[in-house]
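User: Reviewer 2 asked us to show a designed sequence for the structure in our supplementary figure. I'm pasting the structure tokens here. Could you produce the per-position amino acids so we can include them in the response letter?
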């Protein structure tokens, strides 16, 4: 197995990415969620590196990538998608690939496919909702910011960036909290203390409403193109309704659904089930 930790410059920003598996193997892009980074795939990548060539970037403002000042860098999902696109083109990781999308990665993955539909060969959707009715009440403070961004509505989002809030995202709904490494929330909380990091995240919270507006277009594209899709869903996710994973079957009736007694970061306590599902799905439906 080859495994590397690399940083390149995209649009003047240092962008970190992990890479594993042999070049020439089928490509699998791993897109992370909030409040995480490519670190969330630290165990999944070695488990899949015997079968795939994997790349997992940290978006600007996350993980080991740079945190440019929001006064000069637009923290929008459209811009983060452009950064990921430029990164992949710069390292030659383009063309037909699988895309693993978790959390924010669902929006960035869908936007990337809008720009390059020929890049998507198959996809894994893991707790990355694309249905407005799938958003739980945990989104109410974000909805308020979408309607009217003020210091008062922003203040309601601060708990999502505090250590206890970050920890809750990782632990809510997981069947064995003692199996979860505290490195996850401690590290992510530290990243959020960097200068301008919280302002960057507030900008992204405010911009997420532009993804909700695009949900119908993404659903229509899935209905028309039917990409091979594996849905892996921690049904106790703090952010999404328990039935949110099933909602994809409306537009992707041929998709396979694996529901897990887990939360938002399902691979933290369900790694073996997820790895088996991915390898079996790829062998049966894609290869």
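Assistant: Here is a per-position design you can include in the supplement:
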């Amino acid at each position: 197995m080859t495994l590397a930790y690399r940083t390149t410059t995209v649009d003047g920003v240092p962008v970190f990415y992990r890479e594993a598996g042999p070049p020439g193997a089928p490509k699998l892009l791993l897109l992370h969620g909030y409040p995480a980074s490519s670190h969330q795939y630290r165990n999944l990548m070695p488990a899949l590196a015997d079968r795939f060539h994997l790349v997992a970037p940290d978006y600007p403002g996350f993980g080991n990538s740079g945190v440019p000042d929001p006064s000069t860098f637009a923290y929008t999902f459209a811009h983060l998608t452009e950064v990921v696109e430029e990164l992949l083109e710069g390292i030659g990781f383009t063309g037909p690939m699988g895309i693993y999308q978790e959390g924010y990665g669902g929006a960035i993955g869908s936007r990337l496919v809008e720009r390059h539909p020929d890049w998507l060969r198959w996809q894994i959707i893991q707790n990355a909702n694309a249905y407005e009715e799938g958003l739980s009440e945990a989104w109410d403070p974000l909805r308020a910011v979408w309607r009217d961004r003020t210091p008062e509505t922003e203040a309601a989002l601060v708990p999502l960036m505090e250590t206890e809030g970050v920890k809750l995202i990782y632990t809510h709904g997981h069947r064995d909290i003692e199996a979860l490494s505290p490195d996850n929330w401690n590290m992510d909380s530290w990243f959020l203390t960097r200068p301008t990091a919280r302002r960057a995240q507030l900008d992204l919270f405010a911009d997420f409403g532009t993804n909700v507006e695009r949900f119908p277009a993404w659903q229509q594209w899935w209905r028309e193109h039917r990409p091979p899709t594996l849905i892996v869903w921690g049904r106790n996710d703090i952010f999404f309704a328990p039935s949110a994973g099933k909602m994809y079957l409306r537009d992707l009736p041929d998709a396979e659904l694996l529901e897990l007694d887990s939360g938002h970061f399902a691979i933290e306590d369900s790694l073996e089930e997820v790895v088996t599902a991915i390898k079996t799905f790829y062998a049966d439906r894609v290869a």
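For the response letter, you might also mention the following. The mean pLDDT is 97. The two ends are 21 Å apart (CA to CA).
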